[in-house]
């Protein structure tokens, strides 16, 4: 056992806190803390003797203690560990046995996942931080990630990558984290896991890939993974009503210690001991509740505090039957703390409850102004609320952000509802965030990113309570934002709900179009066509030519992916005619570009180039950099298909540069697949692999199935070109599982046939036949650059069997 572990064990056995040992031994609390955490790895002889005196050690026990201290710790080859979570700023009280036991678990063999469970406010986060610092010397790195702010389990890999500093490109965030950790001894503290419970399997995979990683998790419920070691954390012990001495109870010790922080002269004494014991019982021993109450002892006597707390009768106990009893008490404590605020601070707390995920102060002022309240009260009220631990002001990206615990926010929201002002405040919040959405979508997507939870909350409230608040421009802006950020699933879900809730035809039309784009980009092309048709009918009724053109473009694109090129061309030609008749240049460029893709798939390359070049000229005249990038990619695709790889590389390189500066992520991924194809055609396999790997990571991150398939096919091409047929086969098969349009699927089938022909000629024959059928059915001939691959495969089959494979290139 190390000296640090021995010191913790002896101090705990004596029932002493760090503060009590420090006072008894006449050394500093910091010195004891550093020794127990392993920060100070060898104590001075005088310090050891003072600690032995303070612990009242004698005989063999003292000799063993001094001998342990004199033993030189083994040198750490790794050097000083990097600890990526804040050091505790206050002593931990009543959890010393938990700290020691969890430390032994994490240092010992066999335990790789420890989950501290318990109700909200019980001190899970504080305990985990203390344990992490205690065991830091055992690991190369210790990092902590707060999962509480995350909206879903899908956000966990990116949050881990950001916290650990793992570079995401050219791999997905989960892989980036695993690669960074590797085989290094690493402790990762994951806080508030209950918010993202569906991420448990991803956590298990991370443990599987990183054999020396250990996880310390806090959660209100177990992760339910094999090998999980549960550590239920109960509230601090409180004195019974007839306890003769309350000084030994951790809940009382915590209350006294935190009261001293705000009232230095405060002491536990005979006259206040019974009252303090009753306070702790009233608070159920929950550390958060105790700390909130202790803050009030700055100006109140314990008896007054108890009287006010006992007099507060919560109405939530019967209503929220699915919550643990302890959480009811925490809510009561929060309600009581709020009741002690002055009117401006209390009113501000209720108003701030409408913000989801916090708020920038400037946005809060706008909501106050819209609600007819005084924005000038914000700063003073926030100072009061922060001082009483009812909210915090954090620094995010160099700017302040007001945040509130969910439990406190729930109580404040109930108070807002009871005040009779909720409708006005929530209307002001919704109107403000929708205005932010409209005003920022063109040039400040980062601002929408920061307030996305508020945008969602504003839309949700408006849909449920006042659908007329949502105008067509709001829907168009949200659609655009989701497109730029590749949030297609969210676009479909939210905008479908908007279309259903609204009675405004213009809103419904825009919402259906946006939801249809989301459906199309996530692979539900039939639903996209249905939504596009409904949107087109509404736009026609409104005599909205741009809207109708956009709906027709969506319909044509969805039909194209399904292989119905006739309906696709009809939709795009109708869109082009409408746009030309109305002089709508943007619509003209889109329709030309889409007609070009149809001609391209049919191997009508000159015709495709004509459409693309006409579209490109208009886009450049309009200054549409993003549109120019899209058409450059299409030109590059034609160049690649006819074997002009240097030309393709130059064109797509320009497009990728533009899209990196602010384009949609799924389009950037598509551009990178084209770049990889060009590099591979030029024999630059390392460069090709880099581009395809990045494309795959981005596509997986945004969930774009078609581009995932393209990236996998490109990686298969590189493996085949460099002689790794087994890897190529695996990549091609995986690509086919992600679907795609007929040309892409046929191309992958032909490549898979090429790598299978030597080992499984019958399978290769079937693969080529399937590709031929796709190409004939949908009128998409093989491009010239692919024909040598197909010819070699056919030739190999002919030489083996003496039969001629049909060639669909007639």
Would you kindly provide a brief summary of this structure?
This protein has 810 residues and is mainly alpha-helical.
Radius of gyration: 33 Å
Average pLDDT over all residues? 88
Strand content: 5-15%
Q: Mind describing the biggest β-sheet?
A: 6 strands, parallel
Dominant shape: flat
Key features?
single chain; 434 Repressor (Amino-terminal Domain); mainly alpha; 8 strands; disordered C terminus; 5 domains; flat; 810 residues; Rossmann fold; six-stranded parallel β-sheet; two-stranded antiparallel sheet
Could you explain the architecture of this structure?
The protein is mainly alpha-helical and 810 residues long. It has 5 domains: 1-75, lambda repressor-like DNA-binding domains (434 Repressor (Amino-terminal Domain)), CATH 1.10.260.40; 77-234, Rossmann fold; 250-335, no CATH class; 345-580, Serine Threonine Protein Phosphatase 5, Tetratricopeptide repeat; 629-801, Serine Threonine Protein Phosphatase 5, Tetratricopeptide repeat. It contains 39 helices and 8 strands. The strands form 2 sheets. The protein has a 6-stranded parallel sheet with strand order 1-3-4-5-2-6, with helices on both faces. A two-stranded antiparallel sheet has the order 7-8. The termini are far apart. The model is unreliable at 311-329 and 803-810 (pLDDT under 50).
């Amino acid at each position: 056992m190390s000296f640090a572990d021995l010191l913790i064990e002896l101090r705990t056995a004596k029932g002493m806190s760090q503060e009590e040992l420090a006072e008894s031994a006449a050394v500093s609390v910091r010195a004891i803390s550093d020794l127990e955490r392993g920060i100070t790895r060898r104590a001075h002889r005088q310090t050891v003797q003072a600690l032995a005196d303070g612990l009242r050690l004698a005989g063999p026990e003292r000799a063993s203690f001094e001998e342990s201290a004199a033993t030189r710790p083994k040198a750490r080859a790794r050097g000083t560990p990097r600890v990526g979570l804040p050091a505790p700023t206050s002593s931990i009280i009543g959890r010393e046995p938990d700290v020691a036991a969890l430390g032994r678990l994490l240092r010992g063999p066999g335990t790789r996942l420890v989950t501290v469970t318990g109700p909200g406010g019980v001190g899970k986060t504080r305990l985990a931080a203390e344990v992490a610092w205690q065991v830091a010397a055992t690991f190369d790195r210790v990092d902590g990630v707060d999962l509480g702010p995350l909206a879903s389990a899908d956000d966990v890999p990116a949050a881990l990558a950001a916290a650990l500093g793992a570079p995401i490109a050219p791999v997905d965030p989960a892989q980036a984290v695993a690669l960074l950790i590797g085989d290094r001894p690493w402790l990762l503290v994951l806080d508030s896991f209950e918010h993202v419970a569906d991420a448990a399997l991803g956590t298990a995979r991370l443990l599987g890939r990183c054999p020396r990683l250990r996880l310390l998790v806090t959660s209100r419920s177990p992760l339910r993974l094999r090998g999980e070691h549960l550590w239920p954390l109960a509230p601090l012990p409180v004195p019974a009503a007839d306890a003769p001495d309350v000084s030994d109870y951790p809940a009382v010790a915590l209350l006294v210690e935190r009261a001293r922080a705000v009232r230095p002269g405060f002491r536990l004494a005979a006259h206040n001991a019974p009252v303090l014991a009753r306070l702790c019982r009233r608070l159920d021993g929950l550390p958060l509740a105790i700390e909130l109450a202790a803050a009030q002892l700055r100006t109140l006597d314990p008896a007054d505090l108890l009287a006010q707390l006992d007099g507060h009768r919560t109405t939530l106990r019967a209503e929220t039957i699915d919550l643990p009893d302890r959480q009811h008490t925490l809510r009561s404590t929060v309600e009581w703390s709020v009741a002690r605020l002055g009117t401006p601070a209390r009113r501000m707390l209720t108003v701030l409850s409408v913000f989801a995920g916090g708020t920038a102060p400037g946005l809060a002022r706008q909501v106050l102004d819209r609600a007819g309240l005084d924005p000038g009260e914000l700063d003073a009220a926030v100072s009061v609320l922060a001082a009483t631990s009812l909210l915090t002001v954090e620094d995010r990206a160099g700017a302040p952000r007001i945040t509130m615990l969910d439990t406190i926010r729930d109580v404040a929201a109930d108070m807002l509802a009871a005040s009779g002002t909720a409708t006005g405040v929530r209307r002001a919040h919704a109107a403000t965030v929708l205005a932010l959405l409209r005003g920022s979508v063109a040039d400040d997507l980062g601002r929408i990113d920061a307030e996305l939870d508020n945008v969602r909350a504003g839309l949700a409230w408006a849909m449920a309570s006042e659908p007329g608040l949502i105008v067509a421009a709001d829907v168009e802006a949200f659609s655009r934002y989701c497109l730029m950020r590749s949030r297609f699933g969210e676009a479909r879900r939210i905008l479908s709900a908007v279309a259903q809730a609204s009675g405004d035809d213009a809103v419904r039309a825009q919402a259906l179009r946006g939801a249809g784009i989301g459906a199309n980009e996530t692979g539900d092309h039939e639903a996209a066509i249905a939504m596009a048709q409904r949107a087109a009918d509404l736009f026609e009724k409104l005599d909205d030519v741009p809207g109708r053109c956009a709906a027709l473009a969506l319909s044509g694109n969805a039909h194209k992916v399904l292989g119905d090129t006739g309906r696709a061309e009809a939709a795009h030609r109708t869109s082009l005619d409408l746009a030309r008749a109305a002089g709508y240049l943007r619509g003209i460029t889109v329709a030309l570009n889409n007609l070009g893709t149809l001609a391209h798939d049919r191997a009508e390359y000159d015709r495709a180039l004509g459409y693309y070049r006409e579209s490109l000229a208009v886009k450049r005249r309009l200054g549409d950099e993003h549109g120019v990038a899209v058409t450059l990619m299409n030109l590059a695709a034609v160049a690649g298909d006819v074997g002009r790889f240097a030309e393709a590389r130059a064109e797509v390189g320009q497009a990728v540069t533009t899209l990196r500066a602010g384009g949609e992520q799924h389009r950037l991924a598509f551009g990178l697949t084209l770049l990889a194809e060009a590099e591979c055609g030029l024999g630059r396999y390392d460069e090709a692999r880099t581009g395809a790997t990045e494309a795959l990571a981005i596509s997986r991150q945004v969930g774009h199935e078609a581009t995932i398939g393209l990236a996998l096919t490109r990686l298969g091409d590189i493996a085949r070109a460099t002689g790794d047929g087994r890897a190529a086969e695996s990549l091609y098969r995986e690509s086919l599982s992600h679907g795609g349009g007929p040309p892409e699927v046929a191309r992958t089938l032909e490549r898979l046939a090429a790598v299978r022909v030597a080992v499984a000629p019958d399978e290769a024959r079937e693969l080529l036949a399937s590709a031929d059928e796709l190409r004939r059915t949908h009128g998409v001939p093989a491009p010239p650059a692919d024909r040598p691959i197909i010819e070699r495969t056919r030739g190999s089959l002919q030489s083996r069997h003496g039969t001629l494979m049909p060639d669909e290139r007639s």
